[in-house]
Amino acid sequence: MKGEKMMKQNQQDTPLYTGLTRFSQQHPISFHVPGHKNGAIFPELAKNTFRDILSIDMTELTGLDDLHAPTGIIAEAEQLAAAFFAADRTFFLVGGSTVGNLAMILAVCSAGERIIVQRNSHKSIINGLELCGAVPVFIAPEYDQTAGRYTQPSLDTLRQALRKYPDAKGIVLTYPDYFGKAYKMEQMIQLAHTYDIPVLVDEAHGVHFSLGNPFPPSAARLGADMVVQSAHKMAPAMTMTAYLHITGKLVAKDRVAHYLQMLQSSSPSYPLMASLDIARSFLATFSQQDKDKVMTSVKQVRACFGQGNAWQLLPATKLDDPLKLTLHIKQGYTGFQVARYFEQSGIYPELATNTQVLFIHGLQPFGELEQLDNAIKHVNDQLKFVEKHATIEVVNQFPQKLDTLAIPYQQMHLHDIVHVSLHQAVDKVAAEAITPYPPGIPLIMMGERVTVEHIKQIKHLIKQGATFQHPDIINSICIFADE
Ligand SMILES: Cc1ncc(COP(=O)(O)O)c(C=O)c1O
Fold first, then answer.
1. What integer pLDDT is reported at residue 392 of this predicted model?
2. Do 292 and 268 share a structural domain?
């Protein structure tokens, strides 16, 4: 009991933020970087906006510690985070979950080694595979009829993969998905551990799961070996902030530290690191009463969205993040149209796909119910005038339960690359990834054989207004010439 109380008091502390502000209040004279000299030199145009942040935008001065070899206030802040998130070691990240995912993969897998990866992973995972020259075995996700999209791979698919590739260096899973859907991952983790294979989880969207009920359990508490979380997505933290947690003995912490210092800036931002310290403290001191207030607000917002004519609000089960509200758009309309009409009313959703629109409730009661109500009326009105088109449901996107790349990463440099039209790319091997953004999951991966179905989907998505991270997707795509 006493220990618990002490732990709670501890968790209110923000050693990094407090140390930084104390240092700044001494008005230290800067003969060092950064060039804005604690905010003294800055264009007038933006000085007012940036002033407070610049006053703590420091560098590795005496007493301010060093992210890449922490022994002082950064180490203390990371230890508090590890205690709260139930990890043996937590690293603060200033390059988002993106850098965490890269480091996580590089730390367990070397060139030519096999790794089992959920196929519908974020591009940062896929980029990690390429960077280390891994030999990925992709495991296909299942199509969830209620959610209306692909979610996680089944336990059975993972079992097949492990029987066939017991030498895999790791298993990479995404939990929850972008829309907040979690699943029973503990059985997968237990299965992986019977092979002594570490489970690496991209929990970019689940930093708040450590708050406990009514949120799904966090991957770290379910026994995952390494977990990456964006602090900035669901906690009140600045963009680019993230955590990487390690638990157990299957992952070498030093290797993770090695890759993080390689991949991240040698001048990491102190405002971002302080924001990680503050976000952890915010979550750790979030009370039951705070949660109750948020959940009351979520109910009200859900009731509001229930008035829409063109969508069905997806139900929230125990394995759904209650802060994620997903509209499944009815046939004839697209998520892109619905999102656009919301934006016309000043309401900005997180993401739209052709069939869904995602809204994220914050960790405090929502204060603009009337504006939301009016926006929904506006969307309902506008959609009356829209010409309806059938939406193509994608139901066979991942036909193989286990799949590998047609050309391994380490052989790609042996092939010439050419641009061809979309229809000429069919049956060829893609020399670049084609990724609708958001959600940032490659539709086609580099090294994957292009199918008629892929091209159909790309054309359909373009027609419906999806955006791709690709300069000229309508006209051409890159393929390996001689394959
Ligand atoms: C599942 C998933 N993983 C990783 C990332 C990358 O996160 P970050 O923006 O923090 O780099 C994203 C970004 O949207 C994501 O959706």
1. 64
2. no
